[in-house]
Amino acid sequence: MNLLSFTVVLGLLVGVWAQLNVRRPLCDSPEAEEAALVAQDYLNAQHQHGYKYILNRIEDIKVHTKPDGDEYDLEVDLLETDCHVLDPTPLANCTVRPKVLTAVEGDCDVVLKKVGDALKVIAFKCKTEESTEDFCLGCPTLLPLNDTTALDFVRVSLETFNNITVNTTHVLLEVGRMSSQIVSGGPIFIAEYVVVEGNCTEDVCVPLADAMAARGICTAKGTIAQHTVDCKTFSTLIPIVDANSTAPADPVLPPVVHVHTHKHGLRLHKLTAHHNPHLNSLLSAESAESAEVVPVVPAVVVPVPAADPAPAADPVLVADPAPVADPGLVADPVLVADSDSAGDSLTSKDIGILLKKRDLSAAAAVMVDGPAAQTGPVPLVPVCPGKVRFFDT
After folding, report:
1. SS (H, E, C) 128-157
2. What is the reported pTM?
3. Potential cystine with 276: which of 94, 123, 138, 249 (Cβ 3.0-4.6 Å)?
4. Coil, strand, or helix at residue 16?
5. Residue environment code for 331-362, b if the CB has 16+ CB neighbours within 10 A, otherwise e
6. How far apart are CA 303 and CA 319, in angstroms?
């Protein structure tokens, strides 16, 4: 065998071995759900500006079996909620932004490592953008975070709030989002911004350099001349509750968010873009491409010959008779890591296809007094993507 042929054969064997060590769980399986929720919480912890994100859909999952622990390659779709990252409200109680208020989505590729029973994120890559949706006439339109007129509205509405508070002056910490809307009386502004207790000297106020300083989020609506403003104060100490226990753990200080109002024309706070760039070879192109869809490979069904008819005088139900080829053997487009029987006898013909037994409990009974019915191809259950929890983006 010459060197070229040896190299080709070796490459095929390496490729087959790699495929045999890759599992494809269902995107809605408990295993995938666990990994996706770990990724969701981790990404929110890295997100220091703007709002919390919640899982909308698991787009794809691959599990690589390795000697030092399984490695999960995960693609998830997240949606922005109305809870700021400083808000201690549990994520499950936060409301997803509807499309008419300009929904924001995050497409993230995440790599997790499982050692023992613990999952840990080791790399991620995210793309954040507005949901592609036709906006209705008269709906609020998202403005850039450095829009000067809208920022003037924020400043004036904060002055209004400070005039009605007692013994405390609040300073702008971060603008969350700003929108404009056309109504019968003309355009109005809708703004959300985070404030913090200020340290004032004469007429100059700066954010209080204290982790215990009161923080809150304000929602203002109207015009510069006439508006309403409502502010909600966050708890200074956030109780962390173990999901498996009703007893709260020790409270922790909220993260520090710095003044962040000039975003060079951006209209939203983006998720942290990436982590561990040197591991990007493990990540797919999902977060770098828009509207990428992983196609579902159609099933290939082994032809099923009809059973020989038996005498009509003695009808008996026969389950899976020997002469009948097994209609439950279908071609699986994915090589399964735990297929013991295929590992030793795999040939070049077998590359790319393994036969997997399917449940025939509903279709195994055949009447002996007539030929077996040919019901046609049985489609495979799609592995991915998973269910949409809120809405398509």
Report:
1. EEECCCCCCCCCCEEECCCCHHHHHHHHHH
2. 0.68
3. 123
4. helix
5. bbbbbebeeeeeeeebeeeeeeebbeebeeee
6. 18
Interatomic CA distance for residues 221 and 219, integer angstroms:
7
Domains and CATH numbers, the chain: 3-135+271-288 (3.10.450.10), 145-233 (3.10.450.10), 300-377 (no CATH)
- Amino acid at position 59, single letter: E
Q: Give Cβ neighbours of residue 149 (< 8 Å, ≥ 6 apart).
A: 189
Across 65-117, the runs of DSSP E, i.e. the strands, are 70-84, 104-115
Beta strand pairing call for 170-183 and 186-201: antiparallel
Residue 29, both tokens: 């399986």
DSSP one-letter code for 36? H
- CA 287 – CA 290 distance, rounded (Å): 7
* Distance from C-alpha of 125 to C-alpha of 114, rounded to nearest angstrom: 19
CB under 8 A, 24+ apart: contacts of 190-193: 190/140, 190/219, 190/220, 190/221, 191/150, 191/153, 191/154, 191/157, 191/218, 191/219, 191/220, 191/221, 192/217, 192/218, 192/219, 193/154, 193/158, 193/217, 193/218, 193/220
Give the number of other CB atoms < 10 A from CB of residue 122: 14
For the segment 20-40, what is each residue's pLDDT rounded down to a tens digit?
789 999 999 999 999 999 999
The span from the CA of 59 to the CA of 61, in Å, is 7
CA distance linking residue 33 with residue 71, whole number of Å: 15
Kind plus residue range of the DSSP H or E element containing 205: strand 204-207
Token representation of residue 74: 């995960």
Predicted confidence (pLDDT) per residue in 232-269, tens digit: 988 644 443 333 334 444 444 444 444 554 556 899 99
Would you report the helix, strand and coil content of the chain in percent, each value rounded to 5? 20, 35, 50
